What we know:
The complex is a heterodimer.
Chain A: H1 4-9, H2 18-36, H3 38-56, H4 68-81, H5 83-112, E1 123-130, H6 140-144, H7 150-159, E2 163-178, E3 181-190, H8 194-198, E4 204-205, E5 219-222, H9 225-229, E6 239-242, E7 245-252, E8 265-270, E9 287-292, H10 298-315, H11 317-320, E10 323-329, H12 330-335, H13 338-370, H14 372-380, H15 385-408, H16 433-454, H17 457-463
Parallel strand pairs in A: 3-8, 5-7
Antiparallel strand pairs in A: 1-9, 1-10, 2-3, 2-6, 2-9, 4-7, 5-8, 6-7
Helix pairs in contact in A: 2-3, 4-15, 5-13, 5-15, 5-16, 14-17, 15-16, 15-17
Chain B: H1 8-19, E1 23-24, H2 26-37, H3 43-55, E2 59-67, E3 73-80, H4 82-100
Antiparallel strand pairs in B: 1-3, 2-3
Amino acid sequence: MTPWILKLAVRLLPEDVRPEVLRELLEQRRNIRRIRGRRAAAWWTSRQPFVIAAAADSPPGGSMWTGLLDDVRVGQRGVRRRPALAATVIATIAISVGAIAAMASVIEAVLLRPLPFPGEDRLVWVSAYERAPDEPPFVREEAARAYANPMDVVDWAERERHLTALAPFETFEATIRAGDRPLRVDGATVRATMAAVLAVPPAYGRLFTEADYATGVRAVVLSNWRTAFGADPALVGRSILLDEVPHEVVGVLPAMGMQFPQPDTDLWLPLPPPSASFQNRGGVWQRVVARLDPGVTVAAAEGDMRRIARELAQQYPDSNKTRHIALVPLREGLVGATGSVLWLLAGAVVLVLLVACANVGHLLLVSAQARQRELAVRAALGARSSRLARLLFIESAWLAAIGGVLGLVRVPVPGGFAGRRRRHGGGVASDGRTGRNRRVGASCGRSVARSVKWSPTPASDACE
Amino acid sequence: MGRANLGELEEQVLLILIRLKGESYAVHVAEVLADLTGREMSAATAFMVMRRLEHRGLLQSRVGGPDPEWGGRPRRFYKVRMKVVQPLLQSSRKARLTLWNGLEHLWR
Lengths: 464, 108
């Protein structure tokens, strides 16, 4: 079977040599496939359009780059000469590129970008959920958002065998005084084990130790210190007013990519263990995150936690008889069902992009039909088909570049999981710069690919 | 009207054709060039270079008999016109050697 790419490529050559060159190319391809394999032959085939374009466009003393700048200038004039067509094509490209860039950035931020914690795959939500035998089975997403009883959490920590650390937390809102103005902040009370779970060292100072849970000590770790405190490193060791009560700043979490457990968490306070007199095993209000031991699977750890749940059910039948434990990977808990919805939306946006591609292609083809006379004159004056193809390509590249750049203006960059998981009490905020760079690269690639796809066809028609 | 000098690729194609008893075809030239120099060349490039050399009067082509590799279709062979090519190659070699003279440290 003749590869279509070679058939197309030889159209760049003068008509009288095409059949012979094509046969020579096919024989060379067969030889390469026989000696070096299919992949080498495929790679060789994919490069032939460029090689043949260069061979066709290299008069004595010239190269394929000869006259390129002239073509760039002429291409730009060509765009300006047809403002209605240019505006339509640019608007179509800008809208479709903008849509897909926005979608790509959301998917990248939500599903693909790694969380800012070392060994992210070992982090899990540990959740207790109530389910009687006659009730329908629980949904894992539901378990990922379930709360736990503080006494249960103490028992889990004592009896588990497969966790490196286990850290409960609660969330709260408070008012701090930054300078002379009050500021509403979101905070979390966390156990000292949170440092071992997240395995992220503080940017300044330290995280909590067991000493911080002693009566009378009021320590605070700042998570978002840029907004309220102007990113002042000297803040560590100083006192701030939290709900009008002085607290000592003992540390600052890393500023980039690190706001946990909620994307808008501004500070951490120590979460003391339940006191000896605390006996409420019925209520649930804590969330728990844990780090698995190296080499332990989520399923193995979950099996161990189920054993603990059975023991607690026997020990405390009044409160724990219908209480189960589930372990859900951190990312799965954060993303939930949003992942499949996002992929579905991405598919829809890709379809929109394809429709836009087809529209732009038709517009350019119709425009080229109207230019047959101009192209024929160029060909009659000695322009090779490869040169005409290059000119049309450059015109299309101008349109694609302008549309691509316009499509990227004001595309929002989601900050990790910010805003998306607030209701569910979990989230991570992180820097959007990497995502923007990837998105810009991808959009430029798409714009250029689109211009490559449609531009050269009329040139070969004109030469014929 | 042709140029008096040879381009690098033209020179290499001519030398290979002479090595191949003065006559060959595009794929063969491209493969021998790759074997001898490691330089990958497309059969299309070889064909177009030989066609250009033919227009300059340095080669002459003939259509061979039915070729089984080509499904029975004839193949075009290019033959070197030694009387025209030899002075050009000599001049090209001389120019190269002159330029290299005194620069032995570059390859030793």
